[in-house]
Amino acid sequence: MANATMEEFEALLNESLEMDTPEEGSVVKGKVIAIEAGQAIIDVGYKMEGRVELKEFANPGEAPDISVGDEVEVFLRAAENARGEAVISREMARREEAWDRLEKAYADDARVEGAIFGRVKGGFTVDLGGAVAFLPGSQVDVRPVRDAGPLMGLKQPFQILKMDRRRGNIVVSRRAILEESRAEQRAEVISNLTEGQAVDGVVKNITEYGAFVDLGGVDGLLHVTDMAWRRVNHPSEILTIGETVKVQVIKINKDTHRISLGMKQLQEDPWDLVAVKFPLGSVHQGRVTNITDYGAFVELEPGVEGLVHVSEMSWTKKNVHPGKIVSTSQEVDVMVLEIDPTKRRVSLGLKQTQRNPWEVFAETHPEGTEVEGEVKNITEFGLFIGLPGDIDGMVHLSDLSWDERGEDAIQNYRKGDIVKAVVSEVDIEKERISLSIKALGGDKFAEAVGGVKRGSVITVVVTSIEDGGIEVEYEGMKSFIRRSDLSRDRAEQRPERFSVGDKVDVRVTNIDSKTRRMGLSIKAREIAEEKEAVEQYGSSDSGASLGDILGAALKGDN
Q: What pTM value is reported for the model?
């Protein structure tokens, strides 16, 4: 009997020795035999027991899920420690198990479940059921997340972007999952939309150029130019975030899934009635909405704007910026000059609603009227004088003085001088007014020689004796008689035989109103007198001299 028992013991001993004892560093199965002091005592067989902290059986944010009698897999780190217990780890077993599972999911491009449990530099840590992965901040959501608190500890799907078992690195993305589901959702929403369809949407975001409207999972862009028929400077004038608006689908790009929306398309187009409401030549009151370098835009009614080109703004201010003539929001009267329904353009005129100042001036200041104004500018060809109606008149060099050359006379004037002048011509078409300063007080030359004709004999007074002749004066007008015209007799052609103050009868040989000169000659008078005497008293052919004829004539008179 004793022998039998010894044999049985030997057989059992041999059997136990022959059995494979588990290798350190491998995952083994065990049974929970007791739970005490926050630890689970696990029998891993082979007369080995070990302890595992209860928290190793808990998922992030959850209570440990373990009870006596449960079978669990643990990682055998060492067969025996100082206390004669096996050193085991549930966490390491889970990690090994998780890596196997995750590698397969990565290969199949499948989603994995996990929970965000911590925050690290540049992102978050995610528990993927035993393996810890890194979730970069940029991969948390489609848009930047300010507060990730609500996402912590939630079980949710992730996509593995990268993994390296040797280094223990895993990088995951939550954004990829969201984008995928969003794309599916977008595709579904877009498939139900058609161009021209009117739909309700919620204003999600407002930018300088428009607003993004959520059509139930997909965004469409409502451009600022499609919000209203009138000019909208900023979308916030019309819309507010969170507001529900009715929009029309204008265009769907099937490739990019971009949707263009419009609001004004659902309203009546004011341009359909423009030609009827604003006939050519009619005058309307409008509001200045925008000012540019080339003109000002004026709103005639909501949705209908016209342009007043800079050339149509003022009769007088030609090279001035439109902003100097009108200001934004100003109410102005404008005339409709042209309508182009195809290009949706209205040309307006501002100056046409006021009278042409040159016309007004021509009516109030006929030719010959005396005016007074300030010298605005002095040029090489004359003076510009400011006149009523904010217009200028010009005094040409030749109209400055009767006596002086224009180039000399202009030296007497300075900018800012107040001068008088006479209106000599008004050209409304060319917007030109000609003035004359020398015409003030009339034309002295014309008055002086009014009754004098060529061939007349007049009496002049000698004012100066010179080598080449004598200077004489008639009615305040000066003339010069050359030496050769002083006498018929060459011996008498001496200026010195005259004295200043002498009265002399002379014949008028020429009147030049342009140069304002009279041609005078004593010689011509003598010749004319001789001719007359010969005709009256005898013929020169008979040999009688002028002295004989005059002597006889004088005797006869006596």
A: 0.41
